[in-house]
Amino acid sequence: MSEPFLSVQNLVVEYHVHGGSVRAVNDVSFTADRGSTLAIVGESGCGKSTVAKALMRLLQPAGGKILLDGTDLASLPESRLRPLRHKFQMVFQDPYGSLDPHLSAQDIVAEPLKLRGVRSKTERSKEAARLIDRVGLPSSALDRRPAEFSGGQRQRIGIARALASRPQLLVCDEATSALDVSVQAQVLELLREIQADTGITYVFISHNLGVVQEISDHVLVMRRGEVVENGTTSQVLTRPQADYTRRLRRAALDPATMHGIKPRHVVSSLALKTPA
Ligand SMILES: Nc1ncnc2c1ncn2[C@@H]1O[C@H](COP(=O)(O)OP(=O)(O)OP(=O)(O)O)[C@@H](O)[C@H]1O
């Protein structure tokens, strides 16, 4: 059997605070096959974003392995990581904070192409225009700055910028959470199309079980920095094994849907709350 594309083994991440350390992620393991989507769910503060930042090596893990296509990202020094960084990219909840407000959409998307070694400015502009078109924005968007877009449009620019690096792994950290339900559905559809076209692997962090149901093949449930449950989306969401997952699911469902998770292609805006 071939190795999974992403294999996280016994990941430990700590924050250093006030001379001590806080363990935010403790012995977390999971895998994702190439071209699949793994969702990470759990209540606020359970460690989802910390896992995401460790995958991006924005944080140095205190222990464990992050094997991406067989290379352990956790153990590489920055000098050896840099040439690999284009392979793994991240889309944030609010791209506004991460998009340079002074640059046009075209220049924002063209920026990573420099790192990819596309030397000609004309080529970079052409490729940026192609990506902006790919994420469903009109050519009139090219010269506009981030402030001149809606939240959904800005998220599309964030996705186009991430795609400019031709990543093999895209970590989406609450990437659709700030969007209203219909815009959320459009962005999810775009992500699915891109996956079908490119075979990209997603790690999708969300507090919204409706979105998770919609986008993911597998689900990892976290609580207090640890894995509670891990399985296929239908297993975890419709036949949860862990009591905690059952409570999480109950807490996320409104009275109208208490009998079960909403069917596929209906994106619920129900948020995960801390189970009672
Ligand atoms: N920079 C930091 N310094 C110290 N502790 C931190 C830091 N960032 C996060 N933590 C702590 O680590 C734990 C996990 O936080 P994390 O942001 O990963 O949770 P999360 O599941 O992504 O939450 P949310 O859904 O609210 O974004 C929390 O207890 C949090 O308080």
Automatic annotation (TrEMBL):
Classification via InterPro entries: AAA+_ATPase, ABC_transp_ATP-bind, ABC_transporter-like_ATP-bd, ABC_transporter-like_CS, P-loop_NTPase
Statement: the UniProt record of this protein carries the keyword Zinc: no
Gene3D superfamilies: P-loop containing nucleotide triphosphate hydrolases
ABC transporter domain mapped to chain residues: 6-249
A Gene Ontology molecular function term of the record: ATP binding
Highest rank taxon of the organism: Bacteria
Keywords tagged on the record: ATP-binding, Nucleotide-binding, Transport
Pfam families per the UniProt record, alphabetical: ABC_tran
Biological process per Gene Ontology, one example term: transmembrane transport
Protein family (similarity comment): Belongs to the ABC transporter superfamily.
Name by which UniProt lists this protein: ABC transporter ATP-binding protein
Provenance organism: Arthrobacter mobilis
Taxonomic classification: Bacteria, Bacillati, Actinomycetota, Actinomycetes, Micrococcales
